[in-house]
Amino acid sequence: xxxxxxxxxxxxxxxxxxxxxxxxxxxxxxxxxxxxxxxxxxxxxxxxxxxxxxxxxxxxxxxxxxxxxxxxxxxxxxxxxxxxxxxxxxxxxxxxxxxxxxxxxxxxxxxxxxxxxxxxxxxxxxxxxxxxxxxxxxxxxxxxxxxxxxxxxxxxxxxxxxxxxxxxxxxxxxxxxxxxxx
Length: 182
Description:
3-stranded antiparallel β-sheet
């Protein structure tokens, strides 16, 4: 028979610092979800009867399921112009190919080996690749990303390396720089 004393010995509580971090994370996420609700409902006052429970539920689910993520503000500041420039460049390239009489495309599926750690950084990389014109993430494997490219003759590997490196900086992760420089 297990006594009450034995059960209490087996109880473990998270460290105080961990609880404070969870509360801070939850509070920030609640603010983000509240702002999202406010924007999506165009600040209709009656919507808050549903909005408050939805925001609370979204916050609880988010804290329970999505681990805390470390972001680098300088990485985000560098990523935004990088992404915009790549989108403009890629969009111009796709438009040129679409209007070119010979439609110069040689589509292919390529396997790109990932250096990023698993989880949110890899998913963000796959999503980013899909948003850039001329590429589409087809499958996110354990250690690789399968990408559909419009033209396999193009230097897509260096572009994928640049995207991965930029995403890594945004998440504050260290990688080998693009171009294989160890």
